[in-house]
Queue: 2 jobs
Job 1
Amino acid sequence: MGGKNKATILVIDDEHGIRQSFKMVLKDDFNVLLAETGAKAIDVFTKNSVDLILLDILLPDTNGLDLLKKLKQIDPNTEVIMVTAVKEIQTAVTAIKLGAYEYVIKPFVVDDVINTINRALEKNSLVREVTYLRKELERYHPFEQIIGEHEEMKGIFELVSTISDSEGAILIQGESGTGKELVARAIHNLSPRKNHPFVVINCAAIPGTLMESELFGHSKGAFTGAIQTTVGKLEIANHGTVFLDDIDTLDTSMQAKLLRVIQEKEFERLGTTKVIRIDVRFVAASNQELKDLIENGDFREDLFYRLNVFPVNLPPLRRRRTDISILLEHFLDLYAKNTGKPAKRFSKKAIKVLVAYDWPGNVRELQNLVERSFTITKGNMIHLKDVSMFNIGRRTSKEAPLKEAVSSFERDYIRELLESVDGNRKKAAELLGIHRNTLLSKMNELGLK
Ligand SMILES: Nc1ncnc2c1ncn2[C@@H]1O[C@H](COP(=O)(O)OP(=O)(O)OP(=O)(O)O)[C@@H](O)[C@H]1O
Ligand SMILES: [Mg+2]
């Protein structure tokens, strides 16, 4: 019988002729159910999955509006289209206020009815999709993506959970690649603002002159080149979170303007005088110590205190080395999953070297390294030689003879390994799995001090 993918429509009308004509018109494209009274309608509706209802306003046993309310109580997601005579239009309008989607007037034009039905079903599927996505978002675990078992990271997770609920500004400081943006997003997703926008303002990427219009927006003609009115990022972020990334790069005049917005929660679009009030939470990030910049006169102290209500300081990876192998594994799993390729592992020796390495680029550098190694390694074991961190053959042209290429690789490799262990030869030899004397003669041979 009725195709599984067809939407199901329930027609509620006391006139046999009307029910049959709806059935005729609709049966090719929809599964059609019929009910002649309110009682029958409730019965059919509770026993079937119905996508849309065509409801006659005048029924013998009940008032169409009362029935509409009952149906909406049973399932508010089912769209209802009222069927009405001209003299009942006022009631139809009331029905819309009660949640009906639309009304059609008898005698109806078939195409109009079908169009209205299709629009209602389309809206309905969008609403369902949004509801679904909202649920998904709630299920999404903000900390699932942030890996860290080191005590310092645990402390940060706790701090972030606590401050997400409040309104004060947050200043996240930490070296490049330590996860500042990741933490900022987690804060937003844990906050009561999570269903509103998270807007990133990249202070380093936007030239000073454009920054003002980026933040505040402008009216048409506010300056040369302002060919149309543009809404600023602050307005877009209303009720959500504004992430001021690389705040240390903001010039001092913008710092003053930003300070005013944070204090007053209001501003004007460029070229207008109308005051726009906003409700946003500010989270800022910097990979430089703002305190140092203040001393040099490069950062306003008052802005610093405004932002630094809740400080979050992310430790560099080398200060939590126990997290390195966990992160390596995490990203290996991630790339295997994303590419659909079989899982790969680092060899013990590779892990040893990587744990000893200092990671100036922190988690980002580590993530990139895992991606490269995962991609270039054929088998399921990634050996030290597959780890391209040490820029294999950086100074080697393609034509260089093999011996020269190998020496060049060894030279770079050993030099960087030594740097990563602060020149400690004993440790370097251990990591390489060779005797200390062998390392010394190797260094001699390669011209390394
Ligand atoms: N603890 C972590 N667990 C998992 N992934 C992480 C972690 N920290 C950072 N990352 C990942 O490392 C990359 C860099 O992180 P992010 O962009 O948040 O760093 P950042 O501190 O903003 O760096 P920058 O100052 O250079 O902008 C991202 O891909 C992020 O997902
Ligand atoms: Mg960043």
Job 2
Amino acid sequence: MKLYIDRISETPSSLSFEAPSAWWEARVEDAHERPYTLAEPLRFELRAHTMGTKILIEGSLRGALDAECSRCLARYRHALRDDFELLLESAGERVPSDPEGAESLARNGLCLGDEIGEGWYRGSVITLDAFFGEVVACAMPIQLACGEDCAGLCPICGVDRNENRCDCRVEEMKPKSPFAVLEKLRDGRSGGES
Ligand SMILES: [Zn+2]
Ligand SMILES: [Zn+2]
């Protein structure tokens, strides 16, 4: 996914990119261990324009996950939406102090700064894959729930509490105190002796 510098002018131009699941899976080591997969390709819509020697990229990410609800274990579609901004300054003759940044600038024409949304570019072509990878990482959900009000599964009988009711009482499973358990044992023993 490349951005050609000479096609960017003072007038904002629109660009769109699509990344298939294979692109995302190749970028994250644990893709197959996550409780979701990409339900459709990721879409990046960009508007880019120059500001003097700087380039401002404003964009949005749209996608959808085929996810498993952490409460009721149902599969559901989780919408991915995020907006981002990237202000790129021409690197000129400057060299990033960290080797990783220097390598990225040489290879991708792009070195992301310490601040989110800032970076340096060099040359006539910028490869955006690494940046898009970060955008996607930020947009991925931490909590997966099919709805804010998902009641989840009963921890005792496993019934889906969104659809059915059960009479389980979670409190009753736990003894009130260790002494209550001891009393029960003692009562049982004395009952056996008589
Ligand atoms: Zn749920
Ligand atoms: Zn139950």
